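Morning!

As promised:
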Amino acid sequence: MESPLAKLDTLQAVELAEGVEIRLRIAGPVLRANAYAIDLLIRLGIVIVTGICLSFAGLALGERVADGLMLLIWFFLGWWYPVLFEAGKRGATPGKRSVGLRVVQPSGAPITLGQAIIRNFLRFIDGMPAITYGFGLVSCLATKRFQRLGDLAAGTLVVYDRLPQEPSVAAPPPMSSVRPPVALTADEVRSLGMFRDRAGLWSEARRCEIADHAAVLSGARGKAGVSRLMAMAHWLQEKRDS
Amino acid sequence: MRLEDVTAEIRPRSDWEAVDLGFAMARRSFWRCLSVWWLALLLPTVVGIFLLRDHAFAFATLFWWWRPVASRMVLFELSRRLFGEAPTWRQIWKEIPRAWSRRFFYRLAWSRFSPWAAVTMPVEDLEGLRGQAYQQRAKLVMRRGESAAFRLTVGGSLASVWLMFGWLGMVNMLLPEGQDGVFQEAWQAMRAGELGEIGLAGSWILVGCYLVALSLTDIFVTGGGFGIYVNSRTWIEGWDVELAFKRMANRIGMLSKLLVASCFLFLQLPSGAAERPPEEVIREVKSHPDFEVQKMEVPVPDDSSSEGGSSSSRSTGGSPGGSTSPSAGGSMDWFYQLMRGFGTVLLVVCLVAGLAFIACLLWTFRHLLRDRSGIDGGPSAGAKARVVMGMEVTPESLPEDIPDTAWRWWCEGRRHESLALLYRGAISRSIELARVEILESDTEGDCLKRICEAGSRAHPGYFKGLTGFWLGLAYAKDFPANDEVQGLCQQWPYAERRQA
């Protein structure tokens, strides 16, 4: 079991050589199913178009050759389409790209061809029973990092590749900038910045309520506290920008 | 609700990340949620099965209809767990009747088909709002993640049916051969499109699979909806900022207390001398979980260079050409010939496109193929080292006749340069002529090792001697004797242009 101190989250922390920690945001099953559906449609489109073309070509070649070619294309799309795209530069099939997902190693590095092959050839197992993807779904929901069986075998993760658009409705800029009375840690500096950037989303009362929690820092309560915190956030940003 | 006790990381997330957090919450207390889910519906299920034992599908409909009651209980469990409480079985038992009766008509009739139920349920159950206030609040909460909630609910409903077939397939797979008569009958009835014709045993198996699938999906859908709700409130109420401010206030408060305490300690210093041996203090400090060495193994793949170009450009044959209508006048034979010619052209185009695609693939993944072939004499297509140990080793940077030049320099007294020329010349010739793969990051020892591994064509004996002299000069300022250098120049084993 997890220790009670560790809080539940859906991140994969990666420590880089420089001692910097980055966090990958692991993607869950719903969006991945979505991406899979898009890929399925794309492949279906390709099969239909090539099918029409081949049915004409079949007049020249004989039907059996056309059928054989069709089967080859079918095989290629079924087994190799995701492999090639995921081993490629972007690490994602067109479906995954369109919803903003990417396949990576737990270290954040792009996956290799071998990993892409293992991960996608095991789709057959994940797809069981029949073609319902029941095993894959259960495995995805049962593991901490949302890995289906193919991911577990290949040691890969599916992560969000796109940063979400964060609405920040900043409050009117403060008139003054005030130096915080004590040295602040990086976390605290960031929290002041967030307070300033998102204060516009909150009601006046809620703003005061949050600011009251930092009354030790601002030395004031209520609206005075809010404006003092804003001024400090302003000072911190000025210092950062200069 | 104390925000400090929260057991999941509170941070502003994207909609789908919020759903994922909900899934993770449901996963964390999965068995508990599952038992609570079934406990909520236990009594009606037993009674329902008894009364409707001949009408399996009617029972399934009824069961589906009262499903929100079970979702409510899951929500009860998850929300308590999120804030660090663990509801006892007694509390859960007491909550079940409330889950049935609370706004029965609203939840089970009016909004039974609401696709946003997973998010609006927390507003109703956890905040206890009713009427106008509830409507407003629900609208506000749904501003974030409305589409995700919708897709989650619809996807959940689809998944429960889909999983039902999964269960059916699984049961069928595990049945011994010859025992699946019920399945065969049911399958035939389904194919004929007459659900009513499925036998009673078949329908109960179907319904049973559906109930299990429904319970499994509903737990996660409820969790996902709760995740969206928590995320929405994090955004609109700044939960994360509040938490961060509380932590800051704690730290600053501690700081000031510490200041006071240290002043106090300073005044009393003589009396308060070391009470505990330092070993004990160190042990205590080191027992903190922060000092635990945490390891995680990440397998390192062989070929880390994935410098392949953009994946591929695929073409699927020429013009679609499906619009010619065969009802044109003239003999069909003529048309047939035309189509035949067209087909041939199309086939050639297809084949060329296919070949081009394969060539493109080979080109994209050429580094993989090269790694397989190893260093067996073939011309290495990779970039050759240009600078080794800070010395330029390209043939252009070297004089045409290395040993002659080196000996001339030695005689002129430019002894260091002379030996350096010999050494980098030897490396350069090894790369150029003997095809030894030397990397820019290699040291003297690495170079020697690679040249020895390359075999006799790289003249390892000569290079070893030269390396010895070079190392002596470079690191110990130990100049070799004149005749030794002359020997080196005369024995120069690499083919020079003057001899060619």
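The CA atoms of residues 163 and 169 of chain B lie 9 Å apart.

Hope this helps with the figure draft.
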